[in-house]
Design a protein that fits this description.
287 residues; alpha+beta; 60s Ribosomal Protein L30, Chain: A; 2 domains; 9 helices; elongated
Length: 287
């Protein structure tokens, strides 16, 4: 009897220790970022909107893919920086999907009301009735309002696309050139810095909105180090930017990466400020 009592007591102690360990582990769990939950809620609301599902399935699918990447980034390594960026992009993609749906609905309303107006006008000409003319005027006003709504939806869509795709670029003989400075990489490295991701996400959105546009990514360095090392470093940096674009949904056939080492400096390599300007990546959109 005493042996049985000791055996039961030992299992009771082990159970209490296990329970305390589980409670300790649970208390240390890192909560999910609020921005991710808000992005998920925003997407869910859009996914339940019949107009968005019908008229903007592609944009809605893009938002879901970005949201999935944000959730995976949190599950895999708790990368709060990437989760915040991806959550922001998710909300913007949802906004574009909603704007596209509003644009389609407004356009359909305008076309329907325009047809109704023409029918009413035809009836007015045949019957020459004042009532028919009043109905025609009413239809005209409704068509005008629908047209204004369509134009407003188009403006909203253009604004969202400009917000994601507006890039500081300049026109050259080679085409439009966007210059990304040394903020992309640490000295001597070809791994993208986290603070450079926002500009690159905007570049991704810009290229996705214009699916026919191609880009050449050119890497440049200063003159510190050998020609061979600088050429290799510039190529690896250009490939890093290209890889980021492809990873985030840009077709790889539209993007070419080239490294030019210390060729074509834009400033003197005799000063640190000049060398910093020469350490750059240029995105060229050919004419």
């Amino acid at each position: 009897m005493k042996r049985q009592t000791r055996h039961q007591y030992r299992w009771l102690v082990l159970g209490v220790v296990g329970l305390l360990g589980a409670m300790s582990w649970g208390c240390g769990a890192q909560p999910e970022p609020i921005v991710l939950e808000r992005a998920r809620t925003t997407y869910k609301q859009a996914a339940e909107d019949e107009a968005v599902v019908q008229h903007a399935p592609g944009a809605l699918r893009d938002a879901k893919q970005v949201l999935s990447r944000a959730e995976q980034a949190w599950r895999s390594d708790k990368n709060a920086v990437e989760v915040e960026h991806l959550s922001y992009v998710t909300k913007q993609r949802v906004a574009i999907a909603q704007a596209k749906a509003d644009h389609k609905v407004a356009e359909a309303d305008w076309q329907r009301l325009s047809r109704e107006r023409e029918l009413v006008l035809q009836e007015a000409r045949i019957q020459e009735a004042e009532q028919a003319r009043r109905e025609a005027e009413q239809a005209r006003q409704e068509a005008k309002q629908a047209r204004a709504k369509q134009e407003e939806a188009a403006k909203q869509l253009a604004m969202l696309q400009e917000q994601l795709g507006a890039l500081q670029a300049k026109a050259t003989s080679r085409g439009t050139v966007l210059t990304l400075g040394s903020v992309l990489f640490a000295p001597g490295q070809a791994t993208l810095k986290s603070e450079a991701l926002q500009n690159l996400y905007s570049l991704v959105t810009f290229m996705q909105e214009d699916s026919e546009r191609t880009a050449i990514i050119e890497g440049y360095t200063d003159n510190v180090g050998s020609d061979a090392l600088n050429l290799d470093l510039s190529q690896r940096r250009a490939e890093a930017v290209r890889g980021f674009l492809i990873k985030n949904g840009v077709n790889g056939e539209r993007v070419t990466a080239r490294g030019y080492g210390e060729a074509s400096p834009v400033a003197s390599n005799d000063t640190e400020a000049g060398r910093q300007q020469n350490r750059r990546v240029e995105i060229v959109f050919p004419k």
